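Database export, one record per block. Field names are fixed; values are copied verbatim from the stored entry.
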Amino acid sequence: MFDFIKKMFGTKTDREVKAYMPIVNEINQHFESYSTLSNDELRNKTTDFRQRIANHLSGIDTDIKTLSDSAKATSNIREKESFFDQIDKLKKDRDKHLEDILRQILPEAFAVVKETANRLTQHDELEVTATQYDMDLAATNAYVRIEDGKAYWKNTWSAGGNEIKWNMVHYDVQLIGGMVLHDGKISEMATGEGKTLVASLPAYLNGLSGQGVHIVTVNDYLAKRDSQWNGPLFQFLLLTVDCIDNYRPNSPERRAAYQCDITYGTNNEFGFDYLRDNMVTSPDELVQGKHHYAMVDEVDSVLVDDARTPLIISGPIPQGSDEQEYVDLKPRVERLVEAQRKLVTNFIVEAKKLIAENIIGTGEGEGGLALFRAYRALPKNRALIKYLSEEGNKVILQKTENHYMQEQSKNMHIADEPLLFTIDEKNRDVELTEKGAEYMAMGMEDKDFFVLPDIGTEIHKMERDDSLSVQEKAEAKEKLIQDYTAKSKRLHSINQLLKAYTLFEKDVDYIIVNEEVKIVDEQTGRIMEGRRYSDGLHQALEAKESVKVGEQTQTYATVTLQNYFRMYHKLAGMTGTAETEAGEFWQIYKLDVSVIPTNRPIIRKDMEDYVFKTAREKYNAVIEEITQLTQAGRPVLVGTTSVEISEMLSKMLRLRGIAHNVLNAKQHAREADVVAEAGHAGRVTIATNMAGRGTDIKISEDVKIAGGLAIIGTERHESRRVDRQLRGRSGRQGDPGSSQFFVSLEDDLMRLFQSERIAKAMDRMGHKEGDVIQHSMITKSIERAQKRVEENNFGIRKRLLEYDDVMNIQREAIYKKRNNALFGDRLSVDLSSMFSSATEVIVLQGRAMKSFDEFRTMSIAELGFDPENLQDNFFSLSEDQAIEAFQVAFMEYYNNKNQKISDVILPIIRDVKEKQGNRFKRISLPFTDGSTHPLPVSADMDEAIESEGRSIARDIEKTITLALIDDKWKEHLRNMDDLKDAVQTASFEQKDPLVIYKMEAYSLFEDLVRKINHDVTAYLAKGNMAIAMEAEQVREAKIQKTDFSRARIHKDDSEGYDDDPHRTGPPATTVEKPVTYVRSEKKIGRNDPCPCGSGKKFKACHGAHE
């Protein structure tokens, strides 16, 4: 029925291609007509396009400027706020108008890019009239030279350390891919279909707007390579292009890179630059501009796999005891795990005996329960895994599990009763049992040392205990809460240690490098530098492996990649495998996935899976298959899921005398060399899943005749797109090839999600050791299991996003206030709101006092303002009238104070300006509120004179507001970190941690806003000149640059199964190091002629600043 409907209406891909084809035809018509244009006329199309864009937007730009001038001119706060609201709305409308004009010029713009690519392919050099732009490029780039007023652009240049010659012209399917990207969708393109070339089309079109195009890659090598590859194409067409990964953070060079029309960079660096920008104290230090249009390469890796990973900038705090607790608990946890292993051995022996006697029920003394207890205790026990692979045993376990999970696991406590801890492998959850807590406390005086007290019951007892006084009850409650907090933290540390010992394996989930625990990316097999598991799990692994446990830090700024990329006006992405995650892309990012047809049909043969009983049989069969394929002269790529398996297969191949290369997390430095050889005849390459992303294996004609590249998958990954990535290495651009997956019932996916149908089918067919089955029904059943895992993982990611959404709402609100303070243009509106809120709180507190003298004293203490004129009618007025009267009097006092400061400072500034000219730009002001923590305040001399002193108060307000917002925000982040840890204990009370987190986070944010409002109002109201200034005492204000020397950047890997999406305990830190750059072009001597053609020496021309 479904096939019939598809034939009637076509697939989604068919409908999309049909819609785009008229535009493709229009592009090709323009492309043919542009063949008659000269090179100068072709590149000057860029100037024409930009003028058309400017003309289309001129009306709305004029409106925005008019409103901005009006907002600047008025002193009425309500009018100013109204103007700013209108400006914000017009800016959103401007983006819509921009999209309209870009859509109009798209066919012409795409045709210009295609014709430029065509000319670079056909000619070794393109001659154009030299402009200053060409001369500047020629000074630093060998592919441009200047002679006799002409610029000559070569079609060869360096990219990624290799010399390339441009030989690519856009296919029709690539034009479709470019339109999909421009429309803000995900373009799914098969391996070898030229995603880098496709990106050049929307990058050029959107780069014309001057709003900035960010092209995001998964690593710095790809960012630098792609910027160098496509850069000359864009530059020939008069667009500027650069890569942020070439420069140090917060450097002038990185700032200039962001100002280019097209900017390449890694996802991490874009995110960290955003965080750094929200820590700077001067607009001049900002590097990023508007988040307008981003194209994400390998979009599924960035927006799915890495999306929940918080980017964190942190700094040191005083040494805590967290790291020591893991070390102290380690011996007890090791004894506990060993005791559980012995229990599991007994359960397995008992299960074997009972099942052999056909006693296979689910009750006490029956084989099903014994087997289930072994599984609940240690599901990764090798003896258990082997026994479950035998005929019928998996079905017995599944029936028993279903029995105890029914009615919301009502009887699960019966199964868990003899266990020391339980493991839910599907959700990677470990929980200490009562028996385990007793075992852990053996030899200790306090038998309840690892038992969480029942707070509700205990408090109820205290309340009913008449022998305790009110003071004694309060002290007892406080002691109980402290005990609960300490024990919940201790239990959390134990659970993380248990996870480390039972669910995470060395050389599979992580490796040890230089006495550090490094996470291995399950998607790519690469080491994830600087990333740590969340919620203390990484500390537990460090304690387990006896390496140094990380130090404690505090968060200065944090954002997840998910929320960073959602800030862009338009977001698009490219990958070879996004269709399986299409639902997630739409729900979270509102990104639609479009599958682009291949330029040539895919002829790769994808065989049905081979299914074996045991892993040993499977790996023996893999070796036999490799032997046969190499003898046939075909290259073989063997995909594995872990370092351990890749090294085991390598050992087996060495015993057979088969030459091969190994590529895994331990040997990632050899990746480029290994991949370059992988397509040679008879070459065997064993690789973890890194072979499935970012690699392009090319094969010779001889290899094509032999059958092409053979893909062997040694295990089905839990995600279908990872398997598709591996398959996609073969069959690029219509090449022949094949793929074959080998599966055993001992594989993780099969153990966790193998359906009963497979187990029963194998038993019915009398499947014995050494036999193999292969059928489309089995393959589809495995893929259904993968789909269940994907759905489960999506649910986890969505829940983690709900956590971060809470933080993101707060972050956006605070960063908006911070930017208003940084630039100052909207600060007066924010200050009016802060003053109103803070003064209202003081009035309400004062009216509750019933004594005006008390209120007066409080007002003087809090604000330095004496409301003596309100004494007669303060209590007789209504509440709203009293608030308004107090606020009017306060603003009069505040404005008068500012005027007095201006009257004192302005004459001094004029005197200094007259006598010392432009010696100073800014002067220091001895402004303080009388506290022990004065803030550095300065004023711009030229602005002060021009504004008749009004800017002096604005400079003071900007500095004070910015400093206090930053201080309170850091304190709030510490509180939020603590909250994330604290809410996890809610599950012990049968409460949802997320609900508790949202409620408490809202309360904390209200407190934050209240503190900011109060502290900013109080500092500005009480602040004054500390000393009487004279012209001779004036000191220049040093430029205050943000100090990032103690800041550390790192990615905190939310392991994906905890409710805490952000923090580890002590996170790993990565110190920002100076980068050593390799010069790709020939060095120009200082006394050599400048390549720009000016005739001057290099040192007197473009080399003057080097």
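Remark 1: The longest strand covers residues 553-560.
Remark 2: Residues 29 and 193 are 23 Å apart (CA to CA).
End of record.
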